[in-house]
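Section: Multi-chain targets

For targets with more than one molecule, the full set of components is provided together so that the structure can be written out for the assembly as a whole rather than chain by chain. Components appear in the order listed by the source. The example entry contains three components.
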Amino acid sequence: MIEAIVQFIGVLILLTAFEILAQSYIRPMINTVAIQSILLAVIMVITGILENRLDFIILAVLTIAVRGIAIPEVLKKDVKKHGIWVYREVGTRVPSLVIVGLILSIVGYVIYRAAFSVMQGDLPFILFLLGFLVIIAKKNALAQMVGYIVEENALLYAGITISHMPLILEAGIFLDLLALVLAGVILAAEKDYGVLELEELVG
Amino acid sequence: MNLQVVNVVQVLVVMAFSPLMVGILKKIEARIESRKGISVFQPYYDIAKFFRKELIIPKNANAFFVIAPIVSFSCYIILPMVLPIVYGNPCPYAPMVDFLGGAFIFALASFVSTIATADLSYYTSIGASRAVTFGSFAEPTLIMVFFGVALITKTNNPFITNHVLAKNVHWIISPTHLLIVAAFFMLLLFDTGKIPVESEGLMEFGMIDEGKMMEYSSTLYALSKWGSYMKSFILMSVFLNVFAFPWGVAMDTSVKSIIFGTVTLLLKMLCLILCFAFVEETFAKLRLFKLIDYLTISFLLAILSIVSFFIFGGVPA
Amino acid sequence: MYAEMLLLTPILASILCVVIPKTREAVSLISSIVCVFASLHVIGLKNEWFYIDTFSAVVLILIQSIYFLSVLYSLYFVRVVEKELFLRRRYYYALINLFAMSMSFSAMCRNLGLVWVGLEATTIVSALLIVLERNKASIEAAWRYILIASSGLGIALFSLILFHRVFGTLDWVNAGSNKALVVAALALIGFGTKVGLFPSHTWLPDAHGIAPPSVSAMLSATLLPVALLAYYKVFIPSCNPSVAYLTCFFGVTTALIAALLTIPQKKIKRLFAYSSMDVMGIATVGVGLSAFNPAVLKAVMLLLVIHAFSKASLFFTGGNVITALKTHDIEKFGLINRLPATGIAMIISALAVTGAPPFASFVAELIILSASLRFPALTALLSTAIVIAFLSINYHVVRMCFGEGEKVKLSVLADLAPLISCVVFVVISAVVLGGLM
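Its structure, encoded as tokens over all components, is:
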């Protein structure tokens, strides 16, 4: 039963990633990533209790505090400051993006299964690829930030499901630190130069 | 009761109660909007009224114009004979088709009505071309939903699916099944023309299936209208009996259990109609070209259900 | 003891920089000198936390030396920057100290999780250093750098999670060996992002081009080898021929593409950044080939040493051009006449970095090329890359250096760091050549 619940939350997390991918507006995207972090925290708590690991529970608290509340709030405040983002669509290529995401997830599944036929870890791997896709496909800095958080969630998800890695708490703290630095760069840039929007990510 | 009689009962239930469900939905929505609303029997009155009107056939109507409503109406009469509506075991004609066969019969109905109206007038051709365009985007979802069900239950037969799901309660909460239900629900809203897809009435900006009926009158219009009510009813009962809530279907042919099956079906359908009312009252109609996004999301749900089936190594044991 | 010193001294120094801003320059300089001496004493250290083999020791010494040179150059550069700074000067020095510390940490640790943490810390610290000057281009470059580098490190962390699953430990020394292709491939892509390997190299020229020269020197001369070292630590336990092929493939592709991209460059520091990519590509091929012939690793170390000092010198001289002549573009400056010391240092360093014969980098590239003869196609591509890079980089540098011009006055401090690095790599080359004779 608990396993079924964890599986179900896992699929919900995957769905939120697709929601982020398909979302055309910034604010719902930020809300979705907050929900995703909270869902992940639930899995962390369940795994932590089952495995009797205190660090997973600390990680869950950290996840809710930083990626569930702090960063989304900061980003939303920023969205409010630049009114154009509240109603502006940042992408209108929903069907093609969703299809690319689907292809990516099936390819990810096949690759993962080909390499590790017995391991449970496809979901984090697919989630990770989707986070990548969000970063690549969205040009807006806030959306890319959301993509980064998805990726981070995927990594911690992998850390608690694939192998119960000893250093995962430290890794999580550093990933969060980096997320905060990213948010700081966005805020600093936008205070001075308006919205940060990259035309393309090429050198 | 003889199986043939059960067959007829299924058809009669569909024919008799389909307008009622539309009336109830309209009434509930009117109450939510603080209106008094029409009587729940208004759709019956409408159909009766249309039957009494004069029949006019446009000059440039093609050969299919007259037979299309009749063919599609007969399709919707045939379908209850092969699907679990109130009785959960195969009736005499049921072995002829599975899910895909049922989909073919639906397709035949929409095919004839499309070629009957495609070149008739400006409004009907808008309706026909939109129906074909968006229908082609809805098709992959439908097939994926069938695949998903076939994966869980190892069969493509609606009756066996019903039995398997009713017996394995824990499968109901598996992600695969829930995602399939969600995908099929979105498809249901699309196929029955509910609000995120299509709004009620003859609005040329958003109309899809309504547009096709623009040139019809009298008997033919009544048959089209009644046919579309029956189509909604059949789809809803398939959704309920095969996917979402497989319990409460009559399992033997005694009069008592058939009546019990009918009543539970109507009760389940009332709950579904409440869901429809909720969706219709909370969502706005999507812009027409955004419909493809909508159908993409339903496709996504259907595919994810299959992916999650493989990720978790099948349904929970 | 010395290993702890390597970590604690810079931390102490950065705290002092922030608390007592006046001492920032002296404290940083002293800290870097202490670190250089400490690094000479940690070679061969093996304990519960640290494992310093030859490769790590070489990288560690490089980190401290370039740290010293960068601080030395900062004394000049940070003073002459006129534009508004993103960070206060004391934070700049504090961050430089922390940057060196996090790189040393990453290079020394034997636990791969901690190696990763160190690399992640370098991203955080160096991203703030890149935006020293407050303008839109540098913020965009920093954004791109953090986003790409952190995504890459995400892949690396994923590979470490799988590593832990496959090997049951994160200690690379005791991991044993297991043919884990996917682990190594993900690590190659992940750490390769920080090394500047081909598909995810796009942050590198932007970041190097925008950062202050002292930071560019640290990024290019030490951060890239540290990332390569991190990959090497995953490569050793999971080594098998397919992984080696993959490594060689990514390395040679990077070298070739970077070599081709040096040709059309118009900015001084971007040119040098692509040159770093080229050298790192060659070094990656060397690491890949070490699976077949462990001796190649020595050539890789030699290449990295010469590259570090010569590339640091190139960035410093580039910084001199930028501050003295107020331009970022490659033009016919006539540096030999206008800034004699800078011009000479630039020419010598450019020759050394591209592997011109008298320098040790030539020997190193020759060894890697001869080892690559096992795969003739690899040899052909690699030698093409080396030749193209040699011609185009030296063409650009020669164009900048020779010509007529008025002499420009520049502080002595400006030429101190590049000349010291030139002396260092010339001496090393002489020693190596003497050894070979």
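The interface with chain C takes residues 111, 115-116, 119, 121, 124-125, 128, 131-132, 135, 141, 144, 148, 151-152, 154-155, 158-159, 162-163, 165-167, 170-171, 174-175, 177-178, 181-182, 185-186, 188-189, 192-193, 196, 198, 201-203 of chain A (CB under 8 Å).
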